[in-house]
């Protein structure tokens, strides 16, 4: 028998097959570059803030030595330095191309929802006004304030069908589903979403980050959408907010990358519910074998960007802890994957929800800068909720 005959052919998967195969407890991730479905746990990756990339590299090396084929680390990291982390080397990984709009539809039944805002809208706008006072006093240049919607269904939520609807609604988004179960949960807890914001990717020597800041809701009328795109590009307030974010990301990547390209002007990108100012920053790592230049190491260095925290970062994080009534957990953290070569993709955990049995908690936030209007920031978070509300078949509570 020839050596070639002994080589087992690699299974060929379709993106729709991976989406259909997803079950709660699995890890799912898809973007324009492809789809990944991971199952089982070969080894957990448990390390404190700032050392997770090194721990992931060690776990990947150990997995390769143990015979795991093409091992990866997958999972999610929370917003705060002491926040939750769910990184693992899975036992089985399947890959496919980018998803299309033809994924499984799931059950057609729409649950009856009870929706509770946290905090109440009036309390959120009051927090924005307090943040504006801090900005006026010179304590902050920007702070991002989040809020939640707690939804309760009359039956358990079908997570695979919900994920499928998110992917089908926007195949170009960075869709994800991660098990984040904690002791005491009555059922598996899943973090899932469709993030528009790439924190950082690395493939070979190429590094890409795509920070977003400055937003307007998308509407059905295309003439009005053209006006809103133009208004975003012309808005001094939104451009200033975006400049904080792009400069912060460029400064961090400049420590590890060469040939860094930062466009002088932002562009506008769209999702099914929003328009965002966007800057696509590219560069190269000089030595892709350097553990400090892995996708996860770069993501750790970048997190949290001013897009989800503020400027300056430490003071903004203190203000968030003071002004937001609930701990963010995984919201505005990062989710993604890294392989043995250091390649990978990590996205900002936005347009997301946590699902456990009949309960769903949705998250959204808005950046507050000088000139922000509290009512407009409330409306922006409401528009951002629509990604998940539509997928859930729930009414917008406004």
Automatic annotation (TrEMBL):
Domain Chorismate-utilising enzyme C-terminal: 122-384
BP terms from Gene Ontology: salicylic acid biosynthetic process
Reactions this protein catalyses: chorismate = isochorismate
TM stretches of this protein: none
Protein name according to UniProt: isochorismate synthase
Family named by the database record: Belongs to the isochorismate synthase family.
Gene3D superfamilies (alphabetical): Anthranilate synthase
Domain of life: Bacteria
